[in-house]
Protein 1
Amino acid sequence: METVKLNNGIEMPILGYGVYQVTPEECERCVSDAIRVGYRSIDTAQAYYNEEGVGHAIRKSGVPREELFITTKVWISNAGEKKAKASIDESLRKLQSDYVDLLLIHQPFNDYYGTYRALEEAYKAGKARAIGVSNFYPDRFIDLAKFCEIKPAVNQMETHVFNQQVKLQEIMKKEGTQLMSWGPFAEGRNNFFTNEVLEAIGRQYGKSVAQVALRFLIQRGIIVIPKSTHKERMIENFNVFDFTLSAEEMEAIGRLDKAESLFFSHYNPEFVEFLINL
């Protein structure tokens, strides 16, 4: 498995398994399958309500904890230094671990400055090996990165062939922060799985549209966490290290970029109201 080195020297697998929208009932099975396939990085969150399933799968896997890389995220309702601190301990209890490898702020709302101080405290106490943020647009990312004690190691953002986050990646690089993709398949939107450019490139290598899309992000140094509840798809998504896209193919995929979200905008007041009321 290829890795990326985070800004504190920690090595993180560039390919992981995400459990967003995996039900609590299915989560243990899915994570167990993913670990058996070979995944060693698992991404969950308080708001997914499946941390316990991840914890059960980890405990039963037989894989030493130090060989796994576990990420979780603090939700908006747990924002602020005191509440975030308590929620982090609760997440560790559910995950049946003394620490997580990566701890993120899930959304840039409520008292995220206080939340980040709780993350820094968790880092210093050994409860998190690295800390960072998620869904922080360039303006809020810069503001936090310039005024925190410990620079974010990661910013997890909507990143796929139609929204490639080129500008954000450049901004984050100045702070030593790694881009991590959620939604690498755009959840199938914009006719993702029948895109002619991705299909044509895939035929050259005997690869699927999904594999080409993951390979494109990986070659840009972006961490990916594709999700599937089907073991055969987990295997497919895992097998992206036996081919390399050419410069011309990378450029062709680069031209698919619309540089805008297919899901939501944090600048939309109605959406923000919806998020904070979840």
Protein 2
Amino acid sequence: MPPSGITDAAAKGVKLERYASGGALLLRRAASGKLVSASSHLLFRATVLATLALVFLFTLHYPSLLSRSFHLSSSASTSTSLASSSAQHSHRSLLMSSSPSTSAAGTYSGAKWEEQIRRSARPARDGGISVLVTGAAGFVGTHCSLALKARGDGVLGLDNFNAYYDPALKRARQALLASRGVLILDADINDALLLAKLFDVAAFTHVLHLAAQAGVRYAMEAPQTYVASNVAGLVSVFEAAAKHADPQPAIVWASSSSVYGLNTDAPFSEDHRTDRPASLYAATKKAGEAIAHAYNHIYGLSLTGLRFFTVYGPWGRPDMAYFSFASAIVAGEPITLFADARRDFTFIDDVVRGCLGALDTAGRSTGSARTGKKTGPAPLRVYNLGNTSPVPVTRMVAILEKLLGKKANKRVVTMPSNGDVPFTHANVSHAAHDFGYRPTTSLEAGLRHFVDWFVDYYKLDVKIATANAKPTDNKTAKKKKKMSASS
């Protein structure tokens, strides 16, 4: 057995060795900790810098980040230049910010500009109304603005000229309206600052709100644009009218026959259920009707919703079936028809009369932008505006073939589940009772007016078939000449 001294020395040596080993370990851990700490600091700083850079880029490019490029494939170009340029147009963002940096209110300003606004919005006849028309460069908006101005009412238009379809057609409509003394501002309905400014500058008695993202099938490709325009945009207009206009205007706005969705009871009545939309487009329009109920109840806005049924005619939308079919027939392109599809085609003149009738019979709003209180209930109305005569789409194509003197290359398919419905059929008894709405234009007569305009606008070398109008068409040669002049 070794002496105790040797044992103590050995024990001390083991302890020293352990201390040394532990110290080395601590040093290594400390060094490693510092390295990790340094790395963490560097990573944190890099993350902060990257975040700031992204925020800067987002702020700098905000409109372009929110916008979506719209491009519809058109028929092949013909020697008549029927198709527009194939270049893809950038769609202005529908989610406009109300901040001063993105609002058009800064661009539209000054005493001269305000006088232009007042001049366009000022009625030219005793008892005339002053109307702010949104979507004024659109199909229905253009015709309504022309009709209002022609009878001596004041009209100011608003349109964002997006490229859902060829903006050149919208600019041509704008030029037509300008020649009649109607000013259209290039701006968006989600621009809250500009809307508030317009209500400050001009005392609008009415708003005809027609701006919307149209098209049933396109909603499957760009759903956010429908929410931004048809829901957020509607709220934007209601907000401005309720809280900035003094006095509050009466508002007539475009709903749609699409709200009837999967309803099979015919003809469609305003009393039928509308809780089964077949498309997102239909859902946004139904949402709009619910929103209108809330703003009528809370703010006392006088609101009238108009459910349009397949409107057609001169200056129409190229994405609509009758327009695209005519383009395809002339260009020799094939067309796709849905089997057994029927539509209540309604001529634009009849729809315009319905819109003006709704404006003329709209009651006053009862709210106050100054006090935030209302003096009583305000009118809340919904009407169908249709032709009351569903027609097979194949019949519509046959009429176009006859007028254009050329057979269509037809391809008939089963209707897909893309938002379309088998048929539409309007009951217009409520509109007939309340403001005398009675459609008078047959599909044959209406399509002839469209083809007359279509051939002239695109400068087509097409000899239109001789008219074979019936007396019941209620479209005499004199009326046709008047229509051509107005178009």
Protein 3
Amino acid sequence: MAVYASDPARSRGRRHPVTPAPTRNAFQRDRDRIVHCSAFRRLVYKTQVFLNHEGDLFRTRLTHSLEVAQLARDIARALGLHEDLVEAIALAHDLGHTPFGHAGQDALNACMAEHGGFEHNLQSLRVVDTLEHRYPEHDGLNLSFETREGILKHCSKANAQRIEAREPGGVARRFLDHTEPSLEAQLANLADEIAYNAHDIDDGVRSGLLTQDQLAAVPLFAQHRAAALHEHPRLAESAMGRRLLYESIRRMLSAQVYDVIAATRAALAAAAPADADAARRLGPLVCFGEAMRAQSTALKRFLFANLYRHPQVVETTARGQQVVRELFATYLATPAQLPPEFADALDRPRAVADYIAGMTDRFALREHERLTGQRLFA
């Protein structure tokens, strides 16, 4: 590993001390705990862009997390960063996501407006710190500081202050003193962006909501599509459309990965951090080059306008938001409908939010139909 990589032997530790494992480092244990937890399994039935019932081949939060982990590991190896840590962060980064994707999060945040709000990054930390019940001595998965810090990708100042009051100098401190997380956490964050840009193109075309002709107007995609056609002219045949899409996305992914490696190596060479702690004080160092950043931003804007705001996606996610809002209102008014561990909580609104956030799409739909008699999706 490079001198600026996170070293599990120098980890800031866990909230509850554990005996070291004979064959696994601390970050390996974090990854393994995440893979075996209930919240990770539930990601298989949580929306990425398209709801689970809309097709078997669309990405879910689980397949997205696996793709992020794969990209992050490959880049980490090239940069000499700790692969186990970046993989653990990547696999856990969406554990707190609600059913129905970002639309579900927005609905739950609105429901919780008078009770502290809801944010999925904060909820992911809450899952691994509190909501998983797998050990006799404590709640949560008892992950290392470095993994928990990476999971908390975003945090408002108010939430950071609340976490800091409970955990002085802990995972939220960087949002108050304006330092950066580990390089591995920075990498997991960027790999997340690379993954969802690529797979949302694939899912968008598969759904019929995007066409390759539309995507030809997006420079990051168009240049690699053109290169694929130049090298493999047969891909222009109508029967080869799916292969052309895959080859274009593959080349686009590779270009972004190599760009991150080159730009980050240059940033690290210029900053010359002596160790992992020094890297935190030097600003964001894992990055795209300037040209690739501009192209990635243009792609995100295209996807936002043409896919995420497509009338069919908006109409579907609006029904998902209705499910979340009505579940929240029903559980708050009739807590007997909740499992006992949630119904008996002192902070009932937060307990209701925890319960709903942990649901898969299909469980939320079944619960909504049971409680309201409505079937909003075929």
Protein 4
Amino acid sequence: MTTYLTPALAWRRLREGNERFVNGESSHPNQDASRRSSLVENQHPFAVIFGCSDSRLAAEIIFDLGLGDAFVVRTAGQVIDDAVLGSLEYSISVLGVPLIVVLGHDSCGAVSATKDAVETGQMPTGFIRDLVERITPSVLTSLRNDQHAINEMVVEHTKQTSQRLVDSSRVISDAVDKGQAAVIGLKYSLAEGRAKLVSGIGEL
């Protein structure tokens, strides 16, 4: 069955699934053999979740989703690159997904590493340096705003990442302008399990 949702309804469905997860009442929908069979020819996910790669942040689990429900893209610190933008544009233009979720979380290691690099001037080596360089603007903005806690920086980075998606991609910005899609930023609490809205671009 194909379900086309508005951005607002997609967000509500995610909220309801997350509430079940928080309360220990997950229903594990769409995970049986018949669902698997129904998705062989095509897919119609109702949300794309661009989140941190952290092992504690498994999107389908924390939003109580199943096969075919979410198109998921993950990088450490939810850092944007060309492959991420291409994946998100595919979800919008080809799959018609109405909601992009940028999912950050408290105690993020990538944000912590960036804070350390900014404060000490010591950059990490290898490709971790690339992650830190891309997160640095968010950390600098937080420090300018007198926000020194990691979790405050996570929120700032989630907001900036959401805005950068819209600024960087004509496909995403056009979909938002037409009311076909929205971009929201969520901050996930590792202890509580709740994903809290911290920013929104487009109509919800």
